[in-house]
Structures are given as structure tokens and as C-alpha cells.
Amino acid sequence: MNSDPLFMNKVIGAVLFAGLIAMTGGFAADMFYHPQELESPVYAIGGNAPAETQTAEAPAEPEPIAGIWASADVAAGEKLAKKCTACHSFDKGGPNKVGPNLWGVVGGARAQTDGFSYSSALREMGGTWSVADLNAFLFKPKQFALGTKMNFVGFKKPEERAEMVRYMRDLSDSPIPLE
Ligand code: HEC
User: Fold this and answer.
1) Is residue 141 over pLDDT 80?
2) d(CA 53, CA 107)
């Protein structure tokens, strides 16, 4: 044994002192450095991107609404139409505004409204507004009709496009069948 009678006291003191240093060191580190958990890895590798980054961006192509539009909620569609009424009227014989009157648009000819000056993008496209076309147009107007004058971001949710189409379908002299 060591002859110093205070040896054990010194050892204990040294251990406590070392512990104190370690603790204050830890506090100091916490004070100056705030580690933040990353929500997702900074580097998404290959096809294994985490689910979060996949859902953050809307899909590039619209999900079809063929199976859901006919039973979609008309009243919900009418509410969504408030996003359109700055530029469109929906009633028969309603005025053209920034955009054309939309009476009879579902199943109707493209660019059919008299007295509205359509972009060549829509005029030259021809054909009729099928549900599938409206689904694509309302998803991202400028993706469906490059050069269209319609400045609307689009509805990312298929349910919303379905409700919108369902609402507009009734506003016509000859509504297309609900199927
Ligand atoms: C900021 C104004 C604006 C808003 C908001 C807007 N539109 Fe349009 N829309 C236009 C313009 C302008 C055109 C004509 C586009 C062209 O000629 O390229 C158009 C064209 C259309 C057409 C084609 C009509 C046809 O006769 O071929 C449809 C369908 C349509 N809009 C639906 C909608 C719906 C539904 C909404 C709301 C969800 C909406 N738009 C919101 C401006 C707007």
C-alpha cells in the first residue's frame, strides 16, 4: 500500500475532478454546437430516395380520374370553382373574362366559345374536352397545352380534378353520361 495517508482521498479527488471537467466540457459543447437531426439524408442515392423526397414533389403525370369523377362530389366541385371564377364564368351565356365562358366545356369542342381570343396552343389542338383531357389540363395546364394563356397552377389531387369535372359536367345543354 502507498504510505501517503491521503492517497485514497487524492485518487477520489482526481476522479471527481476529471468527471467535472468532462461534464463542463459536455455543457460547453452543447452551448456552442447544436446538432440538428436531418429530416432526410442529404444525398439521395440512386433509386432509393427516401419516401419523403418522393412525395414532396407532385407526380409528373396526373393520376387518371376515369374511375372516380362520375361519383365525385358536385358541391365540392362548386367550391373549387371559386378558384376559376376570377377568370371564368360557368353559366349559360355568361361573359368571357380573362378566360372563356365554360358552359358545355365537358365533352364540348376545344376552344368553342364565341368571342374569346384563344391562344394558338388551344385553337390548333382541335378535338373535344374529354374527361381525360380535362384531367390532364387541370393537373398542369401548361404541360397539357404548351403555350396556353391559362395561368393556373393546377390541382395536384386527383379528387379535386374529379370534383371539378363533375361540377362542370352538369353545366351544359347536353351533359355527357355519368360513367
Ligand atoms: C388566371 C386566369 C384563369 C384561371 C384562374 C383559370 N383559368 Fe381556365 N382559362 C384561362 C384562359 C386565359 C384560358 C384560355 C387559354 C388559351 O387560350 O390558351 C382558359 C381556358 C380554360 C379551358 C379551356 C376552354 C375552352 O373553351 O377550350 C378550361 C376547360 C378551363 N380554362 C378551365 C378552368 C378551370 C376549371 C379553372 C379553375 C380550376 C380555371 N380554368 C382557372 C384563364 C384562367
Assistant:
1) yes
2) 37
